[in-house]
UniProtKB/TrEMBL annotation:
Native organism: Streptomyces luteireticuli
Calcium among keywords: no
Reactions mediated catalytically: 2 H2O2 = O2 + 2 H2O
Listed Polar residues bias regions: 16-33
InterPro entries per UniProt: Catalase, Catalase_3, Catalase_AS, Catalase_clade1/3, Catalase_core, Catalase_haem_BS, Catalase_immune_responsive, Catalase_sf
UniProt keywords, alphabetically: Heme, Hydrogen peroxide, Iron, Metal-binding, Oxidoreductase, Peroxidase
Protein name (Swiss-Prot/TrEMBL): Catalase
Assigned EC number: 1.11.1.6
Region listing for Disordered, in residue ranges: 1-33
Family to which this protein belongs: Belongs to the catalase family.
PANTHER family: CATALASE (PTHR11465:SF9)
Length: 495
């Protein structure tokens, strides 16, 4: 042992002897064991081997999307009576509080990517309710780029690294968007002012999809969730973000943790848009199309809750990296809609969790129910903790094990027609451009200028004219002026 090491240890009160993973006291954590002084290292130095082997296994696969994120615990409080719409117990009374865990993220970047980038932000919320965990795995945008889950892997491939260059490529991004006109609305949103939030605290969250609520009487409603930031919306311009991303890659993660440490707990006002099921068939937009919003004049948002984040996780790996959220985690009174994107997501997340964290991921402290317990007949597998003891592992049984309730979480929906690879139905005012054009026309002149500059800066990097032209054409279809200005701005940059 070196003298310096001994003197530092003498000053600090330790928590007792250091041990191996199996609990045996460690004599020397500085020098590995050798055959003689200066000789080769011995296999019997099990501490050395254990440390090196454990270190090699510290990583688990990062999330295939939304790899980069930060989380915090908090409370959801009901502020209005919604019992005529849903029988979910955590929403049953005004003033009722439910513990939550919220993970924010960016989408395309890998685990070490900077926070201050132009990208949607994930808004994954886990409500630890007394009827099981309810996960709402949303974004900071009310819409999305595509409307069928079958396109998701292709879409994400264009956002991530090219197989040859190993970088994100403007060619791939704009080729896919140009060939997927339904993306025009979300792309307009993303390249507008809200495309780079100043922090996770200064942005809204949205459930984005349409979900079903159902009440005690068995009546169903279609709903959309909105989480409006009480901190106010604050964004970064492209050049502010470029500087911040370089100077402080952890900007958003740090901002959230430090605000909570200061006792400045961020809050969001929670709203819901409610559509009677009878309206859906004849609504002017397909209400299950994720590239469309329901304009507020059609279905005004109703405030029903307050979300507050007030506790930082103690251990980022255990509580953030290993946290799992699934759009299929519903509770009684809440269920899916036939949105084709949502239907794909109902499969994708739990499948990702089994690969990324393991079959017993739901048993980890951050993931398991906190206000009730899971009582299933699922057993064993990697890292099973023996929680079921000697209880029977089959059902039905005559030994008093848990039994089914005979009441589905959500109401059945009527369906008709024949199976097939059907395009989602179009309603009276539907097309891929109408809401993108409306959003553009809502912007102030200064916002339009920033939008055009942001888009043009990226489209100008495309190497082929046909890809750039097809991309611009979609914006022209949304609004003639939008397309004309974009074309001129791209031409000016490309020369
Ligand atoms: C069919 C389309 C989609 C598919 C197949 C898909 C798939 C996935 C997968 C596999 C993950 C990683 C999960 C994990 O490893 O734990 C993920 C993460 C995530 N996705 Fe999606 N996604 C889709 C669309 C969306 C949409 C539309 C939204 C938002 C409205 C969204 C929000 C998120 C968020 C917030 C996360 C991060 C979850 C976390 O914090 O752990 N995704 N997605």
């Amino acid at each position: 042992m070196t003298e310096a090491y001994v003197s530092v240890q003498d000053e600090v009160k330790t928590t007792g002897p250091l041990t191996t993973e199996s609990g045996a006291p460690v004599a020397d954590n500085q020098n590995s064991e050798t055959a003689g002084i200066g000789g080769p290292v011995l296999v019997q130095d099990q501490l050395l081997l254990e440390k090196l082997a454990h270190f090699n296994r510290e990583r688990i696969p990062e999330r295939v999307v939304h790899a980069r994120g930060a989380g915090a615990y908090g409370t959801f409080t009901v502020t209005a009576d919604v019992t005529k719409y849903t029988r979910a117990k955590f929403l049953a009374e005004i003033g009722k509080e439910t513990e939550v865990f919220l993970r924010f993220s960016t989408v395309a970047g890998n685990l070490g990517a900077p926070d201050a980038v132009r990208d949607p932000r994930g808004f994954s919320l886990k409500f630890y309710t007394e009827e099981g965990n309810y996960d709402l795995v949303g974004n900071n945008t009310p819409v999305f780029f595509i409307k069928d889950a079958i396109k998701f892997p292709d879409f994400i491939h264009t956002q991530k690294r090219d197989p040859y260059t190993g970088s994100q490529e403007a060619d791939n991004v704009w080729d896919f968007w140009g060939l997927s006109p339904e993306a025009t609305h979300q792309v307009t949103w993303l390249f507008g002012d809200r495309g780079i939030p100043a922090s996770y605290r200064h942005m809204n969250g949205y459930g984005s999809h349409t979900f079903q609520w159902n009440n005690e009487a068995g009546e169903a409603f279609w709903v959309k969730y909105h989480f409006k930031t009480d901190q106010g919306i604050k964004n970064l311009t492209q050049s502010e973000a470029d500087k911040l991303a370089g100077a402080d890659p952890d900007s958003h993660q740090r901002d959230l943790r430090e605000a909570i440490e200061r006792g400045e707990f961020p809050t969001w006002t929670v709203q819901v848009q409610i559509m009677p099921v009878e309206d859906a068939a004849n609504y002017r937009f397909n209400p299950f199309d994720l590239t469309k919003v329901w304009p507020h004049e059609d279905y005004p948002p109703i405030e029903f809750g307050k979300l507050e984040l007030n506790r930082n996780p103690e251990n980022i790996f255990a509580e953030v990296e290993q946290s799992i959220f699934s759009p299929a985690h519903f509770v009684p009174g809440i269920g899916p809609s036939p949105d084709k994107m949502l239907q794909g997501r109902l499969f994708a997340y739990a499948d990702a969790h089994r690969y990324r964290v393991g079959i017993n991921a739901d048993h980890l402290p951050v993931n398991r129910p906190h206000a009730t317990e899971a009582r299933s007949y699922g057993r064993d597998g990697h890292l099973y903790d023996g929680r079921h003891g000697r209880a029977k592992n089959y059902e039905p049984n005559s030994f008093g094990g848990p039994v089914q309730t005979d009441r589905p979480l959500w109401q059945a929906s009527a369906v008709s027609g024949v199976t097939g690879d059907h395009v989602a139905p179009s309603h009276a005012e539907d097309n891929d451009f109408v809401q993108a054009g409306n959003l553009y026309r809502l912007m102030s002149e200064a916002e339009k200028e920033r939008l055009i500059a942001n888009l043009a800066g990226f489209i100008a990097k495309v190497s082929r004219d046909d890809i750039a032209e097809r991309a611009i054409d979609n914006f022209r279809k949304a609004d003639e002026d939008y397309g004309k200005r974009l074309e001129a701005a791209v031409q000016a940059l490309r020369g």
